[in-house]
Amino acid sequence: MNASETTSAATAVIPRSAVVALSFAAFASGISLRVTDALLPRLAQEFNVPIGTAASVITVFAVAYGLSQLFFGPMGDRFGKYLVIGWACVACSLSALSCALAPSFVGLLIARTAAGATAAAIIPLSMAWIGDVIEYDQRQPVLARFLIGQIMGLSAGVMVGGFAAEHLSWRVPFFGVAAMFVVISLIVLSVDRRLPPHARLVRRIAGSAWARMLSEFSQVLAVPWARVVLATVFLEGLFLYGAFAFIVSHLHLRYDVPLATAGSVVMLFGFGGLLFALAVQALVRSLGEVGLTRWGGGFVAMAFFCIAFAPAWWWAIPACFAAGLGFYMLHNTLQINATQMAPERRGAAVSAFASCFFLGQSVGVGINGLLLPRLGTAGIIAIGAVGVVAVALNFSRLRARRLALAKTTG
User: Fold this and answer.
1) Domain that holds residue 228
2) Within a domain: residue 360?
3) What number of CA atoms fall less than 13 Å from residue 400's CA on the CB side?
4) How many domains does the chain have?
5) Comparing C-alpha atoms, which of 249, 237, 229, 233 is closest to residue 366?
6) Helix, strand, coil proportions of the chain in percent (round to 5)?
7) Residues 299, 242: contact at Cβ < 8 Å?
8) Are 347 and 74 in contact (CB under 8 A)?
9) What's the count of helices (H) and strands (E) in the chain, helices before strands?
């Protein structure tokens, strides 16, 4: 039996519930991430701060999420990725509860920092675990199906936040997220106990944890293609989500759309991603990685320009759907490259990928919060459109060159 057959046989004994459980965890993580987007006008009113200042609840979450990858990547490799995800869900329930009980805006910022730090393990380690147990040629469809949970969570987070901002207390969504994570943690930890040994693989490495962590990430960064992927996803997060975070506020302030309605419109971003997940095999066959990144960036740019300058708010309905489709065409291709850019250190590699993505988001939201009084929400979204298409076209060019070189060298 060759190596490929051995891997296929090992993959077959993994419970089907394993990826489903991770998808549920990703769903809750997505809600936690995006629930504050639609709450920004309500938080600004509640705590008597400008919307740009209120956006700090997004920035601190993203910063904590990004920096915590430096910890969770090596930790997943050492103690088992699936187990670490389960206990991270437990921690997420506590951090979400602290958000719900925050007594002040400063208290909410501290709680959101903790929420970002605890959520940091879930999606990156899930991706790395899938990379460990699923062969490369089968990985993109499996990863896309896993990401359905995250996609729907991101959409539900915006919708729930908008509904709560309009009809309920801003605290209610955080209580719901806390309860959700309690249930999901029990499911994930139960599945972990039923995983075969190869799917619970841990690496015992001697030496100090700090030195080991530095070694892991330095060896990832030593790979030239890894540096390209990491720089690309940082800029993607900066331009795309730096603008995306203000779409609900844009629809509310420019067109006087109720926050609940605006949140529901932005939820269509997730349905665009869902379409990608369902059609991923056909799209990969017809476009390949180069085409997916090129067309994905183009869809996002056109959609963002439409949202920014459309004469009526309802143009945002098809635009948000198209933006979601384009984003996942681009981002899923980057994710696939991340799982393979340093296979022997996949936990650290994927964690570095997620770190760059969320640090990019935090920088983008922070800069746009400062630019908001001068450029307005339309200007911010337009800049995001230009930035995303430039990043996508550059990566597409570099990926095409790399694939051509691989063919010539055999």
Assistant:
1) 13-192+209-408
2) yes
3) 12
4) 1
5) 237
6) 85, 0, 15
7) no
8) yes
9) 18, 0
Q: How far apart are CA 305 and CA 221, in angstroms?
A: 35
Burial class (CB in 10 A: 0-12, 13-18, 19+), 273: buried
pLDDT tens digits along 17-35:
787 888 899 899 888 888 8
For the domain that residue 310 is a member of, what is the CATH number? Answer: 1.20.1250.20
E strands, 264-344, are: none
Per-residue confidence (pLDDT) for residue 385, from 0 to 100? 95
Q: Between helices 56-79 and 105-119, what is the axis angle to 10°?
A: 30
Q: For residue range 38-58, list pLDDT tens digits in order.
A: 888 888 888 888 887 888 888
Query: Does a structural domain hold residue 43?
Result: yes
Measure CA 315 to chain center. Answer: 25
Farthest CA pair distance, the chain? 67
Q: Is 18 helix (H, G, I), strand (E, B) or coil?
A: helix
Q: Which two tokens stand for residue 351?
A: 């964690």
Residue 390 lies in a domain: yes
Alpha-carbon torsion 285, 235, 99, 185, what sign? positive
The two structure tokens encoding residue 111: 């709680």
> Distance (Å, rounded) from C-alpha 121 to C-alpha 125?
6
**pLDDT surpasses 50 at 321:** yes
d(CA 72, CA 76): 6
Q: Is residue 4 part of a domain?
A: no
Report pTM: 0.71
User: Which tens digits make up the pLDDT trace of 263-280?
Assistant: 788 778 878 888 887 887
